[in-house]
Each structure stands twice: as C-alpha cells, then as structure tokens.
Amino acid sequence: MEFTICFKKLLLASIFVFSLISLSAHSEVNWNFSKAKKLAKSIYTGNETSFYCGCDYRTEAKKLVPDWNSCGYVPRNKFTKSGKINSRSIRIEWEHVMPAWLFGKDMNCWKTGGRKACKKNKDFEKMESDLHNLVPAVGEVNGDRSNFTFGNISGENRVYGKCDFEIDFKKRIVEPKETIRGDIARIYFYMSKTYKVPLAVELKQMLELWSASDPVDTWERKRDAKIQAIQGNSNTFLTLEGKPVIESENKSDTKKSKKVGVTGQQLKGVKGRSNTSSLSNF
Length: 282
Prior knowledge:
The protein has helices at residues 2-25, 33-43, 68-71, 100-104, 108-117, 122-128, 139-145, 181-195, 201-213, 218-231, 264-267; strands spanning 57-60, 63-66, 92-96, 134-138, 149-150, 166-168, 173-175, 216-217, 247-248. It starts with a helix and ends in a 15-residue tail after the last helix. It is an alpha/beta fold and 282 residues long.
C-alpha cells in the first residue's frame, strides 16, 4: 500500500516537472516589439556594447547613445540630405539579426501591405518581438543593413570607420566581423526552427560553417540565460541540439575563420535545406 502511494507521488511529481520543462521549452512571446526593446535593454545591462561595431553605449535620458571613440566609428553619412545631423548615427537601435522581411514576407499580411500591415498579426508580433533575435546596433548600420542577406564581400572596404562591417548596396549583401558570425548563425537556426522559416541552401551551408568556426562564448551563454529567464525558452543551437560545442571564454582567442559567403545572385529564388548533416534536424 505504502509502495503504491509513493509510486503515485513520484509519478505525479515527474509529470509536474515534465510539464514545467515543456512549458519552458515552448513558452510564447506575449509582448509587442515596443515592450521587447525595453526588455532587450535590460538583457544588455552590464554589457552595453553594440553587436556589429563593438561600440560602447550609454543611456542619456531615455535614449541609448553610442560612444564612437570606443570603437573608431565614423558615420557613413554625417548629415542628412537636408543638412541635419544624421540622428541614426548617434543612437542605438534594436536590430533583428534575421530581418523581419525574411520571416514575414510569405505571410498574407506582408503580401498585402508589408511590415506595417502585419502589426496586428499575432504570429508576426511573436517573431518580431522574440528577444533571441534582437541585438543593439548603431542606428545608421541598422538602417543600412535593411533586409540584406549575410555573405562574403571581397576586400575590406569599410565605410563606418574602424567598424568591421562591410556592405554591398548593389548586391544587397553585408559581411559582419568574424567574431560574431557564429552568433548570427545560431540566431538564424533558432528563428528558422522556432517559426518554420525556410533558409536558402547556400545560406544554411554558410551559416553552418560560421557556427563551427566561431564557437559559443561566455557572453552568448549569459545572454541566452537572461533571455530564458524573461522569455522562458533557450536557443538550443548553442549546444547544437544537445551536442556540445567548443566554448571559448573570449572570442578574441578563437582562430580566425576563413571567409565563406554567398552572393545575392546565388541566394535569389533558392529555398530549402542543405544536405549537410551537422544541423540537419531543424
């Protein structure tokens, strides 16, 4: 009798724990993009550094202001066409690593009226407000990046001072510094799996190489833990679906990756999954 009671208690406890785990793994974003930006700000408290250029930033009034001197940033356009100071170069914005265009373009609301038309769509709102996909960026860089794809650009033609972020406006490609390429890859894989966003074959293959060549570092794990505490879920690609990856304490200590990329023409009109096996389960 006592054994039966103990067994039932153990079974109920196991079900309860399993339910909590399941709830955490499938937690849904229940806030809008405006709220997400405030939450993202708290996540980066103690590590106020822009993602692409590595600029320190501070809070002035309610705005986040980048310190150009900390990263050698020089605006591509110091002034607007009307002669006013380029306000986006002097503020930090919250950038979608996977652009809204990529996860929204196949939705009916987007086809009807673009991003603005999707504002009231709950499915789009969840993707737009997912904290795993938001990083701080100098506004000018965020605006220039637009919905350009990541890839390889020959040469090192830098248009933002010392910021290692190349951009080809004609081909609509951007090339980030090597030390964040793995972060970008793992965010793309997370968004692709979570929201069933298809990735072009060549893009996925490149991102797999980026993830392998730029290991998970301490901050990436801390960021993920902070997001999990708020949003309730983790980016499982930080461990390659349970398969541990080499972790670097400091990304500056990792070996430089060989530049691998794709061009806009290679990606145009191509969807699907690669035949590679390293991340074939998402």
